[in-house]
Amino acid sequence: MNYKVLDDKIVVYDKNCFNAKHILECGQIFRFKQLANDDYVVFSGDKKAQILEKQNCYEIVCSDVLYFENFFDLNTDYQTIKGELSQKFSILNEACQYGHGIRILKQQPFETIISFIISANNNIKRIQGIIERLCTRCGTNMGDYYAFPTQSQLETLTVGDLRALGMGFRAEYVFNTTKLLKGVNLQKLSKFSTSKLLEFLISLSGVGPKVADCIALFAYHKMDCFPVDTWIKKVYNQYFLDVNESIVAKGTNILQKDNVCEQTKNCAKCENISGTNKTETAFLNDENQTTKRVEDVKIIRKNLTELFGNLSGYAQQYLFYYKREMDRRGI
Length: 331
What we know:
This protein is an alpha+beta fold. The chain folds into three domains: about 5-75, TATA-Binding Protein (2-Layer Sandwich), CATH 3.30.310; about 110-220, Endonuclease III, domain 1, CATH 1.10.340.30; about 230-330, no CATH class. Helix content is about 45%, strand content about 10%. Strand 4 and strand 5 form a beta hairpin.
């Protein structure tokens, strides 16, 4: 990643691996606003950064450059990650090209937990409105914006206060989880294994498997998580159903090298493993295929994490963003 850290800004020269719209509008964060053109402002905790697009670069203007260098995960080589994902499936090649500038943010755990509880069965505009009202209600006044509330600040609100912000049934979840987290060092949870972390998160009020996966991925960078929602269910049933039947059943990770079907190197459903994907589109998109749809989220999550291993989180973001945007455009 080609970038330079200055006193009051970060200059990112590699626009193929950094795009403000892709990063902020791929479902991983809610506290941002679009400014003129393709410029944005993003908030994290009590911090703010403006992302300004220039002809040959992006400028991340902020008062804490080291924080936002980590926040945008600038030290990770996304070009290599996209290359690994793209070479195996044509759909991922398309998705990585479309959302080429996605980077998975490193967000603050408490803010991520509360934000994704609020996000359950909700739409983006409403989620953003609720969170903004929450920040204004009890977050620290930073001058031209309000910080996300700390745990102690949020503890001052009642269920009624939270309902008044428009949270509805989620108010009780936020209230109860805030109490449950009192005295918990959320940063130390990063040392937990993914399974242990998910177990803890699901014990919180209002946190189910999908929300837990989102928190683990976006706050703790657990890349072996694959949050499954409506868009991922569509992707799975359209592009990965047959792949999972023929490969995951054998306990195979699709991203392992030199992994060839023992039956024959010309097996139509495994051919992409040996370096070619000539038949991939044909059998994945066959409108006449008789394979039944899979609706069980647990099965979809299990199969996709087995397919992508420690690249699951990256694959999820590229696929989610691509499918959602294509459907919105009627493609």
